[in-house]
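Sample entry (95 residues):
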Amino acid sequence: MFYLGYIFTNAYISQVATNAKDEHALKFQTDEKVLAKQVTAKSLTEVDPSDYAAIFFIGGHGPVIDLAADPDCARLIEAFWGADKYVAAVCHGPA
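Predicted structure, serialized as tokens:
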């Protein structure tokens, strides 16, 4: 059985919290749902590709900063691709 899940890298959330000081970013940084997801976020090494039907990389600076040269990210892409699963990205995601 496959399920949808969200993987927030703690480095990405830290980057958002460090750099953004506008009203929306400050709201994001104190949002209870976001904070709860950050606490329970999986690291890329904890992700089992067999639990998912696809992998999707969002746009923005997170993928460029955290994922472009990350060997664990590359391992996941290779695992999904090798299992003939969907691999998708938008904007900066293909970096």
